[in-house]
Amino acid sequence: MTEDKIAVIVLAAGMGTRMKSDLPKVLHPVAGRPMVSHLLATVAALSPERVVVVVGPGMEAVERAVAPHPTVVQAERLGTAHAVAQARAALEGFAGTVLVLYGDTPLLTGDTLRAMLARRRAADAPAVVVLGFTPAGGGDYGRLLLGPQGGLDGIIEYKDATPEQRALPLCNSGVMAVEGGALFGLLDRVGNANAKGEYYLTDIVALARADGRACAVVQGAEEELLGVNSRAELAAAEAIAQKRLRAAAMAAGATLIAPETVFFSWDTVLGRDVLVEPNVVFGPAVRVGDGVEIRAFCHFTGVSVGAGCIIGPFARLRPGARLGEGVHIGNFVEVKQAAVEDGAKINHLSYVGDARVGAGANVGAGTITCNYDGFDKHFTEIGAGAFIGSNSSLVAPVRVGDGATVGAGSVITKNVAEKALAVARGAQMELPAWSERFRARHQKKADPQ
To answer: Per the residue annotation, which of 28, 38, 348, 442 is the catalytic one?
Structure first.
């Protein structure tokens, strides 16, 4: 049915001058993802028929970020009603419900939007449904003016409000669900005779009421309606997002010893019975299998970790690290663009990059794969069951065969055959009584008497 169809207009043309940044405001990340991308992901779950994003001039970066959704440009920033009007051509012929959302509100939930859509479909068929909230500290938000029966009669912007109106508790979030067939006709009648000289979207409520149409309010939580206009508000949004992600991880079966010290990306996946010690950071694209133990002060980005692994403390897993089951990665070990197969161990002070470590192999303390020659990256292969002695350098491209052993302190520049022992270090010399003579000379210098 027509009334069940949904279109979405996302307003993302704001300059974000208070952010003091060259990056458009809506592209600042929360939990590792741009704010506008969070909102678009929430919208996608509603299966809208159309989505259009309103951007400002020169915002090609935003256009790329929201693709494949179309964008329209608000050449002059003349107010929210003017911004919404830029989507007229993109929504031509649409007669369902139009959601008007803001690209700097990444915490808005699908449940709240569904509540607004349900209210739009109620028997009184309100032309406009506004999302309201009651902030703990009041604030300089527009106020919602309710009629005697609880319907919405109008919205007054804070700068235009009387002291009595400013004292009203219910505030305007800016989010609306509007009858598509009426939206642009209402916008055409909005004027700019107000304190800012702008065309306010909020004025369509009073215009709809003057036409005899009902308007309504749905209340949302203040937390999810936080608009980000400054670095401080960005930090507040991050804190809320992290709180949600931590709760979701624990609800799914992970143990967080000190939840407030663990930081997630929006797409982090932890399996059942994962144990996470304090001060662990998960960047984007991390998947952790069941029963993994992650010790304190580890950092992950772009990695997959198999079931039963033990990681850290102080381990860094960089993009392209792929750990099989039962792998041990110890303290101050860095792995990048490398497959570490089932049961392998890299327990101390090592760097393994652009490599394969075979199943059951043991990489000793201080080992590095020398993967970069100043121009190109090269690959190191360590076979299954191989043993790499401490303080070894494997100069790529090189292969250590299955079951082979590399003696401690070796610099390996040639392939090592399966089950062979390779030792590549300077010969040890011993000069009898040299140390005694050395000390005697220095003592004589110190005491010429």
So the answer is: 348
